[in-house]
Q: What sequence folds into this?
DNA sequence: TTTCTACTTTATAATGATTCTAAAAAGGTG
DNA sequence: CACCTTTTTAGAATCATTATAAAGTAGAAA
């Protein structure tokens, strides 16, 4: 099945639970943003099965480390993840805590002129806060 | 004293504790980044007095709401604040969890081309992740 | 298939930052 | 000073996340 490779690449055995998590994460047409709690609910609804939070955390973190998921840099009580792993940015609507993708092409090139000794840039992420 | 106005502007009475917090936050030559825990330690060392965490949280949040402090958008178990409230950005060194200011002039203009219906932009923040 | 071992899952406990609470203390106005 | 409101504080509560350890499963090898 198509998710086995993704799991193995992430250093995880393809178990029933993990394949179900993959289904919810990667089977949908559109990418989406989620917290671990959101994901747990979605799994319960879509797959009608209870997977323990520990397993979900474990799987999500492995995917994140491997680049199959991205963490969204934002201050919130929960950690937000994105199934869109392309190079892009976010709007954050302060009035309802919703995130909206901002494509790279909608921001234009960002040129970081300052260099830090011995360090290289891993990512450049823009967060645009919105209000009414 | 110079911090009384800042406190009153933030809707807070100038109490002994809050004036001490102001001293540590705003008396230094350079701006700095901190977590509430960092700040509590700094107060203990510099002012040699114990102010309860509840009071520090309360004061920091009031200043943040009023714009005398900024929250730094980043995923971390603790919330990071910045006494530099000018329009600027950050490097985040993943190897040691340290933040470094990135002045606006080191990034160049950022042009957000996408508009969201009925919403206005409150801030545009760039986070540049660094690694060895 | 059977066995064996390492990896998984899970419920539950532990952790740690932040928020809440309620009683005692302090601010500040008259 | 008197009074009332705000504040401080220690400690409890909350809540996301991580750790634990016992029972289950994957998968390689015989």
A:
């Amino acid at each position: 099945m198509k998710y086995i490779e993704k799991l193995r690449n992430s250093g995880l055995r393809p178990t029933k639970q993990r394949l179900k998590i993959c289904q919810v994460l990667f089977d949908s047409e559109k990418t989406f943003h989620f917290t671990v709690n959101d994901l747990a609910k979605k799994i319960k609804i879509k797959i009608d099965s209870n997977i323990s939070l520990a397993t979900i955390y474990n799987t999500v973190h492995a995917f994140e480390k491997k680049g199959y998921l991205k963490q969204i840099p934002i201050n919130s009580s929960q950690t937000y993840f994105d199934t869109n792993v392309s190079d892009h940015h976010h709007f954050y609507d302060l009035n309802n805590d919703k995130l909206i993708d901002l494509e790279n092409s909608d921001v234009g090139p960002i040129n970081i002129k300052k260099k830090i000794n011995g360090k290289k840039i891993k990512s450049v992420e823009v967060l645009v806060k919105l209000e009414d």
In short: Chain B has two domains: 2-71, 86-130.
